[in-house]
From TrEMBL:
<dbReference type="InterPro" id="IPR001810">
    <property type="entry name" value="F-box_dom"/>
</dbReference>
<feature type="region of interest" description="Disordered">
    <location>
        <begin position="1"/>
        <end position="25"/>
    </location>
</feature>
<dbReference type="InterPro" id="IPR020472">
    <property type="entry name" value="WD40_PAC1"/>
</dbReference>
<keyword id="KW-0597">Phosphoprotein</keyword>
<dbReference type="GO" id="GO:0031146">
    <property type="term" value="P:SCF-dependent proteasomal ubiquitin-dependent protein catabolic process"/>
</dbReference>
<feature type="repeat" description="WD">
    <location>
        <begin position="361"/>
        <end position="400"/>
    </location>
</feature>
<dbReference type="InterPro" id="IPR036322">
    <property type="entry name" value="WD40_repeat_dom_sf"/>
</dbReference>
<dbReference type="GO" id="GO:2001205">
    <property type="term" value="P:negative regulation of osteoclast development"/>
</dbReference>
<comment type="pathway">
    <text>Protein modification; protein ubiquitination.</text>
</comment>
<feature type="compositionally biased region" description="Acidic residues">
    <location>
        <begin position="1"/>
        <end position="24"/>
    </location>
</feature>
<dbReference type="GO" id="GO:0010992">
    <property type="term" value="P:ubiquitin recycling"/>
</dbReference>
<feature type="region of interest" description="Disordered">
    <location>
        <begin position="72"/>
        <end position="141"/>
    </location>
</feature>
<dbReference type="GO" id="GO:0042752">
    <property type="term" value="P:regulation of circadian rhythm"/>
</dbReference>
<dbReference type="GO" id="GO:2000060">
    <property type="term" value="P:positive regulation of ubiquitin-dependent protein catabolic process"/>
</dbReference>
<dbReference type="InterPro" id="IPR015943">
    <property type="entry name" value="WD40/YVTN_repeat-like_dom_sf"/>
</dbReference>
<feature type="repeat" description="WD">
    <location>
        <begin position="521"/>
        <end position="560"/>
    </location>
</feature>
<dbReference type="GO" id="GO:0005634">
    <property type="term" value="C:nucleus"/>
</dbReference>
Amino acid sequence: MKVQEENMEDERRDEEETTPEQEEEVMKAALAERWQLIGGHTPSSSSSFSSFPFRGGEEDEVSVVIVTAEDESCPSEPFGTAHLSPTNQDAGMEDGGDMKEEEGEVTSPSAHLQQQMKRKLDHGPDGRTFPSGKKHCKGNGPLGPSSLVQATPTTFGDLRLANGHSAQRRRVTSGPPPTGLQDWLHTFQMWSGPERLLALDELIDRCETSQVKHMMQVIEPQFQRDFISLLPKELALYVLTFLPPRDLMQAAQTCRYWRILAEDNLLWREKCREEGISECESSRRRRCGTAVGPWKSAYIRQHRIETNWRQGDSGEPMVLKGHDDHVITCLQFSGDLIVSGSDDNTLKVWSAISGKCLRTLTGHTGGVWCSQMSVATVISGSTDRTLRVWDAESGECVHTLYGHTSTVRCMHLHGNWVVSGSRDTTLRVWDVSTGRCEHVLTGHVAAVRCVQFDGRRVVSGGYDFMVKVWDPDTEVCLHTLQGHTNRVYSLQFDGVFVVSGSLDTSIRVWDAETGNCVHTLTGHQSLTSGMELRDNVLVSGNADSTVRVWDVRTGRCLHTLQGPNKHQSAVTCLQFCRGLVLSSSDDGTVKLWDLRTGAWLRDVVALQSRGSGGVVWRIRASDTRLVCAAGSRNGTEETKLLVLDFDVDDKKTETD
């Protein structure tokens, strides 16, 4: 007992005689050992240790030790860490420190100091473990104390720590460690990397489910890193471009920094571009002075409009009555103007906002069978064998185009040129601004029923079962597309593919350059009366009461829009955009379908006389409005236009 007391006295004397230089050497040794354990290099001679007092309160004073070292693998990037220890060594001794006194064994002062430093390196000032292998960097200079205190959390574990939660993971406390554990761990550390992986594989195979679950709980937090906050802003924004808009909005709720990124205007401009939302729509939102960026505001507005389409939030339709009991044969819609043509020899210009008839265009001496519209310019074709060019704003007839010798049955406007097809078997190319006929295309041997023009080539379909591709400048027929066995009633042309629909029940896809038939689309049972082609997706409406969606590149039918809610009579007209398909029918309804799934969504319009004579002849739609031309063939429904508005309230959009 006396010997033990003498030894303890010697230890206390040695501790009192420890110089600051010795303490620093011990500190360096401890730091070097710790740095090697977490995968770093041994601090070189250029490593620096600096210490300064920091008073956290009236009584508490700690010494902050800053250690910076030059990483040999990346000399230009200094790294460092900091550790806090009480300036009063007695305080460290009074709280127990790492002093061990078991069965008369007492650690030396130097060993105690080294253990204390290692504990602080391992657990930090608040007892938490520093993330293993993480380098704390600050630009190109030494790490300052302020940056250490305000370090941004980079793992979910760090985030929990920032909120005051303990980082100490739950340890198994079922009893003392098994015999031989330390020997097994030592052997494991002696193995090479591949050998360790093999051992882990074998170990996992022998584990029970509860044991594997425990390993997952330990391992998973190590990989849950907020990598976005670690990236440069430009790269973080690039990563976020891969998220769909709905996920972007959820990401904005994660934390403040993610919200800043997710609100970026250029990021939302890209999302608007993907959805086909135009710049003019964004500019409109900017003028409204929305709180969020104009592109995000435009996207949100478009999303709400689509929701209105899908869920039916349009209010009561506006009814525009005119043309008495005559048939509305053609319908155009541009901006806030609606133009309807009828077999009563007139066209009417309506306001889509007020529903008022602004003016009636008179001059034709026969029924109007076709029309085209660009901004405020309207062109009409009639059974009186003429075309007329109108100013919709003033109601004035600007030009009367003479040349055809029979009914003008179809036309297509592109820029300042309009191409007309007639029952006289010819096509004519007109300059709208002068009213002059510049070219005559002859070659069909029966009435021309449909025409398309892309500014470079004219495509026509006729009652002679033929489809022809023309060069309008030379008036030469480039290709005669033969294959249909009955009249051609409908055409689509996107510059690459020509798609023709016929009374022979088939739809044919042609290569516009070679004139070859690429695909024959079969499935319809009657006349294909209307088609829409966009981005290689074709939607066709047929007299068999069905609508089909096709991929023109493969010739495959993607969807047949039918089922218990399908049309009960011939499809008269259709349109599709933004993932939605609208179809009208002789059954007196307009139905809305999901283009991607082929599912029926709802009946947008259902006439009171549906099923007993009510007909929806034509439909035209913009992003926010639907215009329907309706009536009947037996007097059960008066002739009228229905206007449905799916737009959203600007003020509501701004405040949401």
